[in-house]
Design goal:
By secondary structure, this protein is α+β, with helices and mostly antiparallel strands. About 15% of the residues lie in helices and about 45% in strands.
Length: about 180
């Protein structure tokens, strides 16, 4: 699949610098036409087409987007999902928060291996419940909070889920309160 890029310019007037970055153009056919807007926190995200929205708040999540068709390994099944959490920065800089988050993941999952690291976006593999898992995690910051958006799937199904997870995470936006 070809990914087209748009170039955006961000001008930091106070610092007098210009930052250039590329942003992939989203393939609308893989994402829902409905944009999810949270009633609990000021953000929106465009879910993958056909995925369900779970706002029950399990494990402190604000929302979990779930593929209704679980991936299978033998008799084990796990649906691909995207979960969104938010927590206060508690005085940490963004860089400190990211570093501590990665350290915590490595402590919780001893075999947690980061495969791609772009600072606030990283991909990893780890074992959970005896199964190899892959994830892509995006951290977005407001003035005083971190939003952690994590797409997860069985490693054996990662190739089938990776691009739509990546595209959906790319639509996450903090909106003005």
């Amino acid at each position: 699949m070809k990914i087209r890029y748009l170039i955006f310019f961000v001008v930091a007037f106070a610092a007098g610098i210009v930052i250039f970055f590329a942003c992939p153009v989203v393939s609308p056919q893989r994402l829902s036409a409905q944009i999810y807007s949270s009633a609990k926190a000021p953000f929106t995200i465009q879910p993958p087409k056909g995925w369900t929205v779970d706002e029950k708040g399990a494990s402190g999540t604000l929302v979990v987007l779930v593929n209704p068709v679980p991936d299978r390994e033998g008799d084990f099944s796990l649906p691909a999902s995207i979960n969104i959490l938010s927590e206060p920065l508690q005085g940490l800089s963004r860089e400190e928060y990211i570093r501590k988050s990665k350290e915590n993941l490595k402590q919780y999952f001893p075999d947690y291996t980061i495969l791609l690291d772009e600072g606030h976006v990283f991909e990893a593999r780890f074992t959970s419940q005896g199964r190899l898992i892959r994830n892509r995690q995006l951290m977005v910051f407001s003035e005083d909070a971190a939003y952690i958006i994590t797409g997860t799937a069985l490693a054996s199904a990662w190739d089938a889920n990776h691009e739509v997870i990546k595209e959906s995470l790319g639509t996450f936006t903090i909106v003005a309160k």
